[in-house]
Amino acid sequence: MLIDTHAHLDASEFAPDRDAVVDAARAQGVGCIVVPGVSWENLPAVLATCRRYALCVPALGLHPLYVGSHRPEHLAGLREWVARERPVAIGEIGLDYYVPGVDPAAQAYYFVEQLRIARAFDLPVLLHVRKAHDQALKLLRRMGVDRGIAHAFNGSAQQAQAFIKQGFKLGFGGALTFPRALKLRALARELPLGAIVLETDAPDIPPIDAGRGRNSPQYLRAIAQCVADLRAMPFEDLAEATTINAREVLALRACSGGTG
User: Fold this and answer.
1) Which of 109, 125, 126, 232 has a 20 to 30 A CA-CA distance from 198?
2) 36, 125 in Cβ contact below 8 A?
């Protein structure tokens, strides 16, 4: 079985054929899909998706790039959602200093407050971090959060080791399937196997197999095969190891892989 640790299956891009997308993923050996929240407005859609499909489990959080729409009262509401719904993680949360014009102070405020929620409920976090790895690590240490996934990891080898030391797994997806992604491919090849989890970030970041089309959880198998090839190991061993890693960090119960 494969676990997609990050896919926005609730997104509007899947509205026309979501059932078929789930069936295609299941046919490719995907047995569990983590569906993260990004804003207060989309949390109900995340939960509805996870209720419909038994192989989906929710993470709930407020994404840093949507900080302009977040409100302090959303944090209290998020805490209530978490208490009631018991998601597998708080996410997608973090810091993004790559996109200009997104208030870094506001990002840090919502990041820290959501780290407090994660700590209060003893939950891991799904991190979105771009051009802010050191700053994110500093806040994780300060808040005492030592479990989660650095989604779509694109930092340095030194930063990768720092996240691993902090108790985090690193998420690898479609970007590393491109031959020019030399840094990502080196990390996927050389990092400890116990630190790696797989993801698609569907509908974004499609692998080379998808061409210019929409990304989908069905492509997780191609991503897994690429990592296995880079590490010169059997596909089955890579699949088993990354599934164990995902279950460990997210405390995942078995997903049935059916429809609800």
Assistant:
1) 109
2) no
